[in-house]
Design a protein that fits this description.
With 354 residues, the chain is of the alpha/beta class. A six-stranded mixed beta sheet has the order 5-2-1-9-22-21, with no helix packed on it. Strand 11, helix 5 and strand 12 form a beta-alpha-beta unit. The chain is globular, with a radius of gyration of 21 Å. The protein starts with a strand and ends with a helix.
Length: 354
């Protein structure tokens, strides 16, 4: 049997399974999926879990079942590219013929003193649960600092405002205006929403230190009761430690999404060095191409001379449960329609994944 091993049940590997687990899967291929949890987590919705506006059950999707698919629950401790083996925390090893690395990311604290020790995270479902418990325990009038005003920070701040109107929320944005790389109309809409809902956006911020109940913006001390860090991500340490070419902690690939010196190893999602910012959409587009490459190889066919360029459709974000914003095909959409679009995409994703 040919052994295809998928590391991580994230968006990329779920798309690979969706495309492979059908009547066209060769009989001599066995797929092994390894993850620390026995379900797929909707990472794009972790902000709602942390804010307390979505239950845990809404953030999970069951893994597919198939006679040629085996699920192994465990923590990956080492990727041995020379031995073509995955070492697990319990001492077991899983051999592979082909491997897809999709282990996701962790917070990047940018060497800010105290950030790792004194901030909360929404990078995993487990950490999002812990963040929810921390925020739930805060008394009325408490101050929450959210460091990082990207999509995750924006959605967390807006959702937390709806679930806890009694809290003071400060959103720290390193840029001069929120979502500065997108049209000003989009930035103004989001900023106006925060102004109307009493969320303080602190522009041109630079968090230089975090303490148990304080953070420092430049040299100004700001007292807080809790801090959530949404100011950047990096590949998990087990990927960063691999002795292969990397670009800022992400693995450099050829056009077939393979590691150049290990062409039986593919990388998908946050672990891949690509010209786009990491996202669920990017991971899924990568996965579509990886499936095509695998089918060519399994069928003994030559690979295409050139792979098509990955083109992303844009992004969507929510501002609570009733408003949202989107940037699609170079067009800005705001308000109720944008929120309905995001809800519809989420519903379709869950439906397609069972």
């Amino acid at each position: 049997m040919r052994k295809l091993v998928l590391l991580g049940a994230g968006y990329g590997n779920m798309r690979i399974l969706l495309r492979l687990l059908n009547k066209d899967l060769p009989d001599d291929v066995k797929i092994t999926l390894i993850d620390r949890t026995p379900f797929h987590s909707l990472k794009t919705e972790f902000y709602a879990l942390a804010a307390g506006t979505a239950p845990d059950s809404d953030i999970r999707v069951a893994l597919p079942e198939h006679e040629q698919l085996e699920f192994v629950e465990g923590e990956v401790s080492k990727i041995d590219l020379e031995e073509k083996a995955i070492k697990l925390g319990d001492g077991k090893a899983v051999q592979y013929d082909e491997l897809v690395i999709g282990l996701g990311c962790e917070d990047n604290y940018h060497n800010v003193p105290g950030a790792a020790e004194y901030t909360n995270s929404i990078q995993t479902i487990g950490k999002s649960r812990l963040t929810y418990n921390k925020l739930l325990d805060l008394g009325g009038g408490a101050t929450v600092g959210i460091v990082g005003a990207g999509l995750s920070g924006i959605e967390l701040a807006s959702e937390l405002r709806e679930s806890r109107p009694d809290l003071k929320i400060k959103l720290f944005d390193r840029s001069p205006r929120i979502l500065k790389d997108f049209p000003e109309r989009l930035s103004n809409y989001v900023k106006d929403w925060f102004d109307k809902h009493d969320v303080e956006v602190i522009a041109n911020s630079n968090i230089t230190r975090v303490e148990e109940n304080a953070l420092y913006n430049h040299e100004d001390e700001i007292m807080v009761d809790a801090v959530v860090w949404t100011a950047g991500i990096q590949s998990v340490s087990i990927v960063r430690e691999l002795d292969i070419e990397q670009d800022r902690g992400r693995i450099v690939l050829n056009q077939y999404h393979q590691v150049p010196n290990y062409t039986d190893v593919y990388v998908v999602g946050d672990n891949a060095a690509l010209p786009h910012a990491p996202s669920a959409q990017l991971a899924e587009e990568q996965a579509e191409q990886i499936v095509k490459v695998l089918r060519h190889i399994w069928n003994g066919e030559a690979l295409p001379e050139k792979m098509p360029e990955i083109k992303l459709k844009g992004f969507m974000g929510s501002l609570g449960k009733k408003q949202g914003f989107a940037y699609l095909a170079d067009r800005t959409v705001t308000g109720r329609i944008a929120r309905l679009l995001k809800s519809g995409v989420l519903w379709m994703y869950k439906w397609h994944n069972g």
